[in-house]
Amino acid sequence: MLRFGLVGGVNTGTFFGIYLFLHPWMPYFAAYTLAFLLSMVGSFFMNTYFTYRTRPTWKKFALFPLTNVTNYVIQSVGLYALVTWAGMDTRIAPLVAAVVAIPFTFLLSRKILVPGAARAAAGPGPDRAGTGQDPAHSSSTL
């Protein structure tokens, strides 16, 4: 959880920096979306290598945006509500909305990037065979 928090902090800083850079040249929601997409790629690699200490694969890379769909929806709704209904400054609102999405993103990221995590907590099963690998989830690395 600590590593996830550190990666999340770096990723949030990257996202926010890109957002602030783009914000003057485009509508706030377009800048938010583009910054979100760009920071998602970095988030994938930081989470695979550092947070979960697993190999990145094309399958995981293809599935990783699913974790971010939830994150994006939660942040988007929060961003819209904070700006439209609460009157919050568009330069600050994305950061506040991002904090709310953290627990959801952690749980989904772990499920995708560490496919056997739930089964491993319950003990070794027939598909694990003591190898530390789940054959059903192996694929080539990036």
Task: Give the helix/strand class.
Answer: mainly alpha
Main beta sheet strand tally, sense and closure: none
Q: Which strand-content bin applies to the residues?
A: under 5%
**Oligomeric status of the shown chains?**
single chain
Unreliably modeled segments: 125-138
What is the total tally of β strands?
A: 0
| Overall body shape | elongated
The helix-strand sequence is HHHHH
What gap, in angstroms, lies between the N and C termini? Answer: 24 Å
How does the SSE layout of this entry go?
Blueprint: H1 2-22, H2 28-51, H3 58-85, H4 93-113, H5 117-122
Defining traits:
mainly alpha, 142 residues, 5 helices
Structure in words:
- With 142 residues, the protein is mostly helical.
- It has 5 helices and no strands.
- α3 packs antiparallel against α4.
- The longest helix is centred in the middle third of the chain and has 28 residues, at 58-85.
- The chain is elongated, with a radius of gyration of 17 Å.
- The two termini are 24 Å apart.
Q: Gist?
A:
The protein has helices spanning 2-22, 28-51, 58-85, 93-113, 117-122.
